[in-house]
Structures are given as C-alpha cells and as structure tokens.
Amino acid sequence: MSNDKLSNWMWVLLRAGAVAVLVVLAVWAGLWLGERSAPVRKSSTPEQEKEAVEPKAVALTGDALALEAPPLFFFANVPAGGDWRVALEEMGMAAGAGVHQYVVPVALPWAEFGPAPNAALERLETVLTLDPRARMLLYVKLDPPDAWRSAHPDAVAKVGDRVLPYVCVASERWLEDACKGLGVLINALTDSDLGPRVLGYVIACLEEGRWYQSEGYDTSPANMAGFRRWLRLRYGDDAALQAAWVDEAVTVDTAAIPAMPDSANTHQVFFALPEMQRQVDFLQYVSDQTADCIAALAGYIKEATNSGAEVIAPYGYSLELGPSAAGHYALMRIIDSDIDGFVSPVSYFNRGLAGAGGPMGPVDSVMLHGKQWYLIDDTRTGIAHDPASGAITRLEGLRLEHVYSVQQRNFAAALSHGLGLFWTDPEGQGWLHDLKMWDRFGTMYTVYKEYSAFRTVLHQRRVPGRTWPTPDTFLVLVVDEQSRFYQQCDARLNRIVLTHARDCVLHASVPARFCLLQDVLEERVPQAAVYLFLNAFRLQEGTRERLHELLARQGAAAIWLYAPGYIAGSAAVENVSATTRMGVKAFDGPATSGSIYQLAGTWINKNEEYGEAIEWAPLFYVDDEGVDVIASYRDSGQPSAAIAFFEEGWASIFLAEPSLTPALLREILHILGQRLYFQETTVKHFDATYFGPNFFGVHAQEAGERLIHLGPERLWNVQDLLVPEIGWLQKRSFMLPLKAGETRLLKLTPADDFARR
User: Fold this and answer.
1) Which of 324, 512, 726, 733 has the fewest Cβ atoms surrounding its Cβ within 10 A?
2) How many helices, marked H, and strands, marked E, lie in the chain?
3) Are 455 and 404 in contact (CB under 8 A)?
C-alpha cells in the first residue's frame, strides 16, 4: 500500500468512531420512530461516505443468519457519485421494519484501470455498521471503464460507424479481465470478515445492466470473430455452411455479420428461407453468445467461492423485449448452468395503477428447474431527495395509497409464484424514503415467511381436495425461444402476441403458469387444462406430433396464436393446418388484421370488434366446414378464429387474428367449460389476478363488487393476509368489494382448518 493510501486509511479510522456513533443513533431513531416522519440529512460526498465506516467484526447467532429468510431485499442502487447517505437512511428504515437483506452495488476492480477492492469493502462495512444483521447480494456491473475500452477498441460494441459505450460480450479478452476482477473482489472478501455476509452476486452488463443492447447489429471485430466461432461449431465445415446459406462463395472464416433488416416498417413477418438463413443464424448467435457468457461468469464465481455464492443475472425477458437481436432468448441454454437465478423489473407495459404488472419472462420454467426468479419493484413513488437542500420532497397530487396498492400488487405477483422481490430505489434518489412504506414492506416480509411455511405444510400433507385452485383450472402460457429468430418483423408483432397476450392471461381470472415450450414438451410442467401457445411458429413434424399426443393424453385444449407451426423445415400454410388440425389458408399478399366476434357471448358481445388494423404477410384464415367459427376479419369477412373438438379428447382453438383480449380469452375458456373464479355480475370486471397454492390476489381496475366463486368441492375460510381482521368463513363463493386500484391478498384454508393444526 502506498504512503498516501495508508495515511488516508488511518485518517478514516481516526474519524470513523464519532461518525459511526451518529449513524447508529440515526438507525435507532428509525427503529423507534416507527411511522413518524424521517429526519432530513444533507447530501454526502464520496469522502463523507468513507467517513461513515468503522470496520469491525460482528458475531451473529440464531436467526440473524437464518437461511429461511424470504427472498426479499432492499436494492440500494446508488450510481457512481450518487448520494449514498440517502440509501443509508433507507436501509435504516428497512432494518427497522425487520428487513435485513440488501442488494448493494460495488465497483469491480479492473487491474491497472482500478478501482482497488478497498472501495467495495468500505461500502459493505458501512452497511454492516448500519445494520449488524445485514446480509448482502453484491450488484456488480461488468462494463469496463473508459480507459479499458480505449486500450481494447476491438472489444467495444460497434454499430456501423458508431462506437457504443458497451463492451462486446463475445470479447475473450473482456471475459478474461472481468473474471480476474471478480477474483480480486472475491479474494478480498474472503480475507476480510465480510465474506460470510455476502450471499452472492448479481452480475450486470450492457444497457441498464440487463445484458441487452438495442442499438442494432454489433459489427465489432470481437463480434465478428465470435460469430465465426459459433458458425464453425454449428456447421463444422464450409460445405455445410454454403448449403445452409445457399451461397457457394461463403466460408466460415469469411462469413460476415448480415445487414440488419428493416423490422419496423415491413409487413413481412418471417425471413425468406433459405436465402435469409444467415439472419436466423446471427440472431440465434447473439442469444447463445450472451447466455454462454453469463454461464461462464457464473461458473467462475462458483469455482472461486467453492459454490458458496448465489449468482443471479438480469436475463430471460422473452415476454417483454421486442427486438429479436436483444440476446435474451437462450434461457433454456443457460438455465441448467451454474446460474442460481434471474432478475427482472415488473413489466414496463401495463404496470401502473390498475395494470397487470406481469413478469418479463417464463418465471415458472425457471422455478421448475430449481432456480429462483426475482422481481424488481421500482415503482415511482413521488418521493425524492433534493440534493441542493437535503430535503425529502413529495410529488403533489400523487396519493401514496395508490403507490402502496401497486407495490402490494407486485408483492402478490411474487408471492403467488414463489418469486423473490427487490424493493428498489433505482437511482438512489430517495424513492423509498418513507417510514410508512417500510412498515408495509415489513408486514409483507412477515407474510411471505409465514405463507411459505404454510405452503410447505400443504406440500408435505398433500391431502386431496385441500389445495386450491384445482389442477384442472390451470392455464399454461407457452413461449418459444427458437421461433424468435425466424421473425423479420419482431417488435411490433411481439408486442401483440407476447406482451399483450401475457397481460390478457393475468386479466382472465384463471390460475396461470408462464413456461417455455421445451419444458412443456419434456413434461416438466404440471398437467394443465389449457395451453396458450403464443409464438410456436417453428415446430418440426416430430415436435408437433408430441404436442398432439400430450394434449390428447391430458384431455387438454390448445389455443394457438397467429402462425402456429408455420415453419417446419420450410415455411408453408399446410404446416399451420397440420398443427391446428383445421383447414387453413393464407391470404394472397399482405392482409389486414382486426376481427369481429360472431357469437352471443357471456364476456364478449356478438359483433364486438377487437384487434388492431395492421397489415401482415402472411395472414391466415380458417377454411374448414367441420369447425365452429367464433370470429371473422372486419375487412374480408373470412373466419379469423375457430374451435374444433377431436375424438382423441382434446380441443384446438386457432386465433389467426394475432390479437387477444381478456374478454375473448374468458369467452373461449367459458366455451371450453373451464372454471372462471370471477363470476358474471351486472358489471364485467377484468381485474388483474394472481393465484398460488391456497392464495388469491386481485388488483382492481375499477370500484365495485366481485363475485368470487371458489368451486363446489368444499367450504373455505378466506382471510386477508395484509389485513387479517378481514375475512369470510365457510364459503364456496363470496362478494368482494374493491376500490379502484385496490389490491387484496387472500389466503384460503379448508373450513375444518386442517392447515393450522
């Protein structure tokens, strides 16, 4: 250590005692004040942040280090140069509410480019001084500093002539240096008293730290080399590549990254094959390369920590990211690696008050593989820290009760699927600087822990009829990763058939799972009543037959969106007919979507219109007298949706119209005889609903009473988890009054109360 660094460190130690006392007093005040107003502090400088530490070892016993703690964290996401003192005050509130788990951003050492690992250790010591019971996930951004990028220009992402502020994840030099930096950080933690407090690492990179880049095709030298390595592994030799690309001149060593097609201003949905196979290959390469990079980093961390650290990555946003070049579509490739979990924000679409707040990816597939998915709740609260005055301000006109309700909805989404949750102040600006808010988070923390124990009892006893909802009411939303690579028109179509359809499921009042197609085919997914195939555009003949056999064996129904099985070797409308088991034709040239419902329905009216008027090519229609038509196109009058029942015991519903609505989905489920847990009343409500074992969550779109029908099998006791004095005893159905935007979390136990014994 240099003399300058040594003197600085001694100076910090000399001053730390007095400052540490002030910090501890501030925490004590947060614990004691409860729901009183939080004290206002002046903003801190980086030097003041260092002064807030007194390194010390704290011996913990009992439940302080219990592994049974629920996967709920406060994410103090303070950017470099941000006001760390605001985050410390929020941590004090978290500790006062009984939440002692934190996600803490730390800087990665980059060899000669810095910073030294001391900076990370000092930040963690600050947290430990503040909360002696703290356990931490370290949020580590792997983007190299400017000096590193200047020294390695070939490893920097590039689109055309523009150099991007991101690394190319195909760069072997970058991956090597990132692992070295992680090794330095891990060794420093191991040599300190902090190691046992670190639960693991959230590894972040690229745009927003979430492993995607949306600027276009990366044509950097590192990516070119990576693409050629991938092609050699895929094709083996030049002859195989030439046959696939229909190009006798191309070789593995000369193959270039293709020009990015115009996906925004085209009605052509799929790449023309085989002449555009290079586009398909490049899109798959981007996802494979990103996934392989994350897997390699997870493997390195596991080895360096003797498998003692959890590794989490922001990845797998296949229900949210529109562009197929985003790199997030190889979740199945990475899911069986050393990775322990994934993290994503609550959906950026339809996330406000009365919105669905859906997951960005197939969360249930991740859980079925024994991994964890975490939601990031970064709800805008209207609370902020004024760096000039140091005051905490609140946005006028924003009702905190509405903020609390959205946060409770996000909690319901996590609780229902067993997901983790990061309560996040996304820029360290004081968004969670509210004692009443933390009091509610503390209640949620306790509810999650108690409900998890309740679920364990349910699972261990497995008494028939005691678990709700029943398996025959589940809908499985199925998303396919491979089909993404065949789309030329990506973002516009995916917004409709993926993101919007996902939200329709959450508004349909049926229990749902969000899964990958491969997990359905390999029968990891528990048996369900209905499978909604969002984008199963590429199905080989053998895969199609396996799906039909599974559907017949389970007596299930399949709802197919837009172009199921269209690509099977080649693209042909006959493949859609074979998949849906209906006669299907394609319009000549581009045709316009937008449909009219043809039946007198319970949830959707006859002649009610739905779907956007957008030109697509291809666009399909049903041409089969042996099926029941349920909707037709506005423009042509041709059947756009139909249903067929087969002697083998399964049903096929084909929605050639790409759009789906909550009312249409409910109507289809009603036709199929499926149970809807919201019953018809004089007003049709389409609230967001969340189902877990003996759990029902609802987030209201508007005020009014809902008739909740729990099923005819038995009587249930219903209790509000957040307001325990509210409940209903011995009910098969009950009326639930709701305010606009209100969230309810309800727990069900059999009326004989077996689960409490």
Assistant:
1) 726
2) 19, 35
3) no
Nearest to 705 by CA among 720, 683, 725: 683
Residue type, 221: P
Q: How crowded is the C-beta side of 298, counted as CA atoms within 13 Å?
A: 22
Backbone angles phi, psi at 203, to 5 degrees: -95, 125
Q: What is the pLDDT of residues 106-118, one digit of tens each?
A: 999 998 887 888 8
User: Tokens 């993926």 map to which residue?
Assistant: 498
Strand (E) or helix (H) holding 704: strand 704-709
Is 70 exceeded by the pLDDT of residue 556? yes
Look at the chain and report how many structural domains it folds into: 3
- Reply yes or no on whether the pLDDT at 45 is more than 70: no
Domain that holds residue 705: 678-756
Written in H, E and C, the secondary structure of 209-272 is HCCCCCCCCCCCHHHHHHHHHHHHHHHCCHHHHHHHHCCCCCCCCCCCCCCCCCCCCCCECECC
Residue 289 counted as domain residue: yes
**Which of 32-46, 408-422, 690-704, 730-744 is the least confident region?**
32-46
Q: How distant, in Å, are the alpha carbons of 283, 342, 343, 504, 658 from that of 481? A: 11, 16, 18, 20, 18
Bridge partners, 341 (sequence order): 312, 372
Indicate whether this model's pTM tops 0.85.
yes
Asked if residues 169 and 289 have their Cβ atoms less than 8 Å apart, the reply is yes
The verdict on 85 and 153 lying in the same domain is yes
Q: State the Cα–Cα distance between residues 70 and 686, nearest whole angstrom.
A: 31
Type and span of the H or E element at 544: helix 541-554
CB 156 within 8 A of CB 166: yes
CATH number of the domain that 707 lies in?
Answer: 2.60.40.1180
pLDDT averaged over every residue in the chain: 89
Whether the CB-CB separation of 695 and 732 falls below 8 Å is answered with: no
